[in-house]
Amino acid sequence: MSIHEFILVELDKGVEKIKLNRPKQLNALTYPLIVEIIEVLEQSMKNKSIRVITIEGAGNNFCSGDDLKSMGSEGLRFKPLEDGSRLPHQKMVRLIREIQKPVVALLRGYCLGAGFELALACDFRLAADDLIIGDHRTTRAICILSGASWLLPRIVGFGRAMEIIMTGRHLDAKEAFKIGLVTKVFPSLDFEKEADKFVQELATMPTRCLGYNKAMLNYSLVNAFFPSLQNEFDLYCKNMATRDFGEGLKSFLEKRKPRFIGR
Questions:
Q1: Among the residues of the chain, which ranges form H helices?
Q2: Are strands 15-20 and 7-12 parallel, antiparallel or unpaired?
Q3: End-to-end CA distance of the chain
Q4: Cα separations (Å) of 17 from 25, 139, 159, 191, 261?
Q5: Is it the case that residue 81 has pLDDT exceeding 90?
Q6: Residue-wise over 50-89: b if at least 16 C-beta within 10 A, else e?
Q7: 64 and 121 fall within a common domain
């Protein structure tokens, strides 16, 4: 397990587990915590042994949002990072979208505000049935700032996104699943076991292929059809050079389950 001040990081059987570790503050985000996540994600991009990344909160909550008291007192609001990024939040969610590995948010308890945007950036959102999710910042005259305006309409549709963001109301797990905001919902008592099954299944899949598919989907959201077709072809050809591509074809011909290694 890596040593950090505000997060816990563990790599187990190809799954990198990132845990926000401020349970007494309901895992509220601070700039130093976000910078730690950024550093881990940048390293994860280069680590071929990582097949899946999960993000969760310590204790019974995912993330209650920004720790506004801490951010204000430290005078760090909108302080650029060394690479020129204007806001750490935005770099964090951009890395999640860019990394060519599945990223899974494990949601229980509160998932609000900036924590809500962190969850939106992930590829999958698995929820316990005690989930309370949404973004109430508008009720305090605080705007969204790290991806919700782009991500949420693409996940639940423009009309629902408008209503969720503009009213600032919270949704329970049942409603979140009904509108497609979360991928699956599990009973709280079984959440860890069921979520682990889902994640472990992802970890046995052809990681490079999943990453290329993720990149294709990202590309298609901001490009026209014909350029997207060309991008699909380019990445398809890259995938053909992977070991897992050959294993997939061989296992099909031999009528057996494939044994992918993520390369």
A1: 31-46, 68-74, 88-98, 113-121, 148-156, 158-167, 173-178, 191-203, 207-220, 225-240, 243-253
A2: antiparallel
A3: 24
A4: 20, 33, 34, 16, 19
A5: no
A6: bbbbbbbbbbebbbbbbbbebbeeeeeeeeeeeeeeebbb
A7: yes
Domain span at residue 216?
207-253
| Total domains present in the chain | 2
140 lies in the same domain as 231: no
Confidence of residue 82 (pLDDT cuts 50, 70, 90): low
Residue 80 has pLDDT above 90, yes or no: no
Q: Which of 128, 124, 140 is nearest to 55 (CA)?
A: 124
Q: Write the CA distances from 231 to 96, 100, 121, integer angstroms.
A: 20, 15, 22
The angle formed by the CA atoms of residues 202, 203 and 206, to the nearest 5 degrees, is 80
130 and 211 co-located in one domain: no
Inform me whether the pLDDT recorded for 23 exceeds 70.
yes
Q: How far apart are CA 75 and CA 67, in angstroms?
A: 13
Q: What's the confidence (pLDDT) of residue 75?
A: 45
Amino acid identity, residue 203? A
pLDDT bin (cut points 50, 70, 90) of residue 87 is confident
